[in-house]
Specification:
166 residues, mainly alpha, Ferritin, 78% helix
């Protein structure tokens, strides 16, 4: 049985994961609108992945006899300066998610909720992969550049991440 504190924190995380999905879907729309279909496809695939993360938490609450509560999810920003701006914001967002997951893990330990602690280890590993992925895409952006034709090649490189399932 989950404590009230863990239920509250897990519900907040569900909503943050759903916000992440909306954020990446909106970023995908911006990229497509700006003629960057590769980045658009990558972010759209990532939006779907974030939805899966939220649903996994939702299911966990059900499995433990707790009640998932969906709150209001704020609308994500719709304007970005450049593709690099989008990428920097995704990386910063993933760092925020990592901090929140770490807080959840710590709370599970404080509550001596070893079942939740064990469940959350998947998210710990996932966040390591997410940060590594977005950092590597930012590194490619710095290497390839975004001036002139470089943006075309960068977009093609980003699309490869969408097809690789990462």
């Amino acid at each position: 049985m989950l404590s009230d504190k863990m239920i509250e924190l897990l519900n907040k995380q569900i909503n943050l994961e759903f916000y992440s999905s909306n954020l990446y879907l909106q970023m995908s729309a911006w990229c497509e609108w700006k003629g960057l279909p590769g980045a658009g496809a990558f972010l759209r695939a990532h939006a779907s992945e974030e939805l899966t993360h939220g649903n996994k938490l939702f299911d966990y609450l059900h499995e433990t006899g707790a009640f998932p509560v969906l709150g209001t999810i704020a609308a994500p920003p719709t304007e970005y300066a450049t593709l690099v701006d989008v990428l920097e914001k995704t990386y910063a967002h993933e760092q925020q998610i990592t901090r929140r997951i770490n807080e959840l893990v710590f709370a599970a330990l404080e509550e001596k909720d070893f079942s939740s602690f064990n469940f959350l280890q998947w998210y710990v590993g996932e966040q390591h992969e997410e940060e590594k992925l977005f950092r590597s895409i930012l590194d490619k952006a710095k290497l390839i550049g975004t001036e002139g034709r470089s943006i075309y090649y960068l977009d093609k490189e980003i699309k490869k991440f969408a097809s690789s399932g990462s």
